[in-house]
Amino acid sequence: MSIAERLPAPISRRASAGITMGPPSDNEDGGIALRPHAAASSFFRAMQLLPYRRREAMYALYDFCREVDDIADGDAPRSLKQTLLSDWRSELALLYAGRPRHAVTRRLGEAVHLYGLRCGDFLAVIDGMEMDVRTDIRAPSFALLDRYCECVAVAVGRLSVRIFGEQTPAGERVAAELGRALQLTNILRNLAEDAARHRLYLPRELLHAHSIFGTIPSWVLAHPALSDVCRDLAMLAEGHYDAAAPAIAACPRHTMRPAAVMLAVSRALLCKLLERGWRRLDEPVGIPAWHKPALLLRHGLAGR
Description:
Layout (H helix, E strand, L loop, with lengths): L35 H4 L2 H6 L4 H22 L4 H19 L6 H13 L3 H16 L7 H23 L4 H21 L1 H6 L7 H6 L7 H5 L4 H24 L7 H20 L14 H11 L3
Helix pairs in contact: 3-5, 3-6, 3-7, 4-5, 4-6, 6-7, 7-8, 8-12, 8-13, 12-13, 13-14
């Protein structure tokens, strides 16, 4: 599944090749070159609502997530992927010891210092990547799926809300609820792409409830009851969106504008998925270009 487009509680793991731990950037400021396709995403529009330093911190977090994400979704052997992720654990240890070597962690250093970012949250993201690397996830239990969401979405959310300037229990609830909502929405959006990687994130209990007992992704996606399973999972996502909204409202408005925008955009995407259904998985689903600025104005700029 994806963590890059999900920020800020989640980013999109859709790269085709693994990324190695390369040398630091030659840029004078040690910065990271942001991917052109990512720069046009809803995430980057939402981040424009942040002050410069916080925005740069979010971009650095995005790049960390892309790095480990690309390893998990790459074509390298599992053993090499595990080694590369272990290298990132070592790099995080160096970061928190004040000696980062990689361009990404060098850029994260200031954010860690300014916003109190916790090493455990970064390590949790790697835990989630390792779940994908160890074995192809197929029809996980609700408990395992929730653990996966906690790692690849909620942990990123906790890092994000701290960068936004929110360290209260309400901010933690935003990360927990919005992270799960965004991750479940991504699961529903990326069924075909995940199946191509031999992965199936639909929970076992929902499949069994609709008399689907296989776990081969292509077979499940062709099952007549797939739409019923997906509608049930969409309702679970809606419940998390419903819980995230009051948590966002309980925080100072200026800190949570990016989260409010991401909630609005992703919830609109879930509505589009429900309208399309799950019979035509090759039919792309997105938010019309004209609708995104309206959501930004409504949820991000009002009351500035």
